[in-house]
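Blackboard transcription, Thursday session:
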Amino acid sequence: MPQQFLAQGEQLQVPAIDFAAVLPILIVFGAASIGVLLEAFLPKHQRWSSQIALSLTGIVGAGIALAAYISDAPEGGITTFMAQGATTGAIAVDTPALFLWGTLLALGLASLLMIGDRSLEPGGAFISQAGLQSGGLQTREQANVTGMQTEIFPLTLFALGGMMTFVAANDLLTMFIALEVLSLPLYLMAGLARRRRLLSQEAAVKYFLLGAFASAFFLYGVALLYGYAGSVKLAEIAAATAGSSASDTLLYAGIGLVVVGLLFKGSVGPFHTWTPDVYQGAPTPVTGFMAACTKVAAFGGMLRVLTVAFEPASWEWEVPLWLIAVISMAIGAIFGLTQRDLKRMIAYSSIAHAGFLVVGAMTLTEDGLSSTLFYLLAYGFTTIAVFGVISLVRDANGEATDLSSWAGLAKRSPLVAGVFTFLLLALAGIPLTSGFIGKFAVFSAALADGNAALVVIALVASAVAAFFYLRVVVLMYFSEPAAEGPAVTVPGAFTTAAITLGTAATLVLGIVPAFALNWASAGGFVP
Amino acid sequence: MPDDIAASGGLDAYLPLVMLLALSFGFAVFSVAIAPLVGPKRFNKAKSEPYECGIEPSPQPVAGGGRIPVKFYLTGMLFILFDIEMVFLYPYAVAADAVGMFGFIAVTIFIVAITIPYVYEWARGGLEWD
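(Written on the board underneath:)
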């Protein structure tokens, strides 16, 4: 048993911290903190430009720090923030963590570009206070203010930093703190839409209430696992599972509750109920950020927990997760067919994709890990670009997300329709897109692990889901445009850059995926 | 009885804690029970209203749009912030010698991280009552 108190005059040994390894996270959090100070002291007209400069510099700087660390990273990964006498640290920096950090930073950059756009809507897509009443006097005043509300930038950076910590957390308490750091800004950001205030507020309240429940589930599970293993560290939970005399009920209940908390964040059915409402109500750039980055973070965390902590108990949770994967794919594919609103349709598509990701996450082989990481990267870029294109088609009331207003879009704007078609095909998993490579890698890893039945179900679900993507394509190309339909806004440089980045990544990862697959399979989790 | 508990003098070490628990429970019950017995009973309108921390329970005045003012919560959140800060500073003050320069830097970062939102709230007018 480690000594608990220091004797009189004894010095504490400083915990081992490898600052070079965690520098990307520190840079993101540092930029977020400076962003708060900029909000406090800069006059209104300077805030947008300085916040944009600060956030982009922060993310690019974190990316450079990450690249510099990767160039001579120790083989097999390290853990840092290690207390005196401990065997593992609180943060693990290994190949999956580095891969996910790179993914999160790239997706965060694209999201920030979309969030910072002022060309589609004068003054940006956001309002200053999530609490403003729909149709109230203040809201109408705000709607005419064209200076952008810039609190959204530090909020995004805080959420991004939380996500980066989440995927690297090596014990459940660090993971919980990171979960809150990434969730709290997102709850607020969902309620900031300039148009359709009521939908946006509904989204924020639903996301907050259900997210608070999920956090409570997660925390309760952590408490039970601590009761079982006597530690919150992932490696020590795994060790305790192999040879503990404590009641297995604690272990199973703990695993169940922790995994439910993670599945909620990853919007996996049947814990998906918030997803369509929140994706629809939140401002579209924020929806893109949530759909891409939150999913990467949630599944990154789930991969680590399932592999490092719960692997010895895998025969206990394999069947429930199998069922959950099937339910999620079925809900996403079937309910997606009935949607009239594009954002809701993409939300159900993300639930189906979450099901595919669970198939990868529960495959505890090297191929299972690397294919899931690749899938996250590919899906993130595609979905950000999809929401970027959705924000372009507008009428007098803002974005026209109803399917009928997209009829005949190819005649108005062949370029936008072409890009959107390509992205939808990627979501459906057609060859020459990253979606195909991702699905192929995940399904073949699951097949090699002996999960043939699940793969067959996943293929059927993909085929069903392909129908509603293709329906939009048919609608855009083979329907007559409505007489007073929406116009395709020409986007400014920022949104153009975000859509280009997402589309190019979808294409490149679809044609030459080897470099990303090689990186993803360069190493496993640090034990 | 497991060895490590026996080694530290058995469960006797927890006796003061149990006594404190009993004392606080007893005091709470006593306070609630004694008030209606010995207190004077002079009711008025304000006393019969539900206790809501200084806010009119309902309805809100029309002048404010009928909405519940959140000023109290802003101040309350600020209070919690500094409350937590102090709670964390006490253990540091006791162990300042042992944790040395590392502890000093860690606590300084902690205080800075708490000061940043405070500065933000102050500069953006969060501390002005009206």
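Lecturer's comment: The mean pLDDT of chain B is 81.
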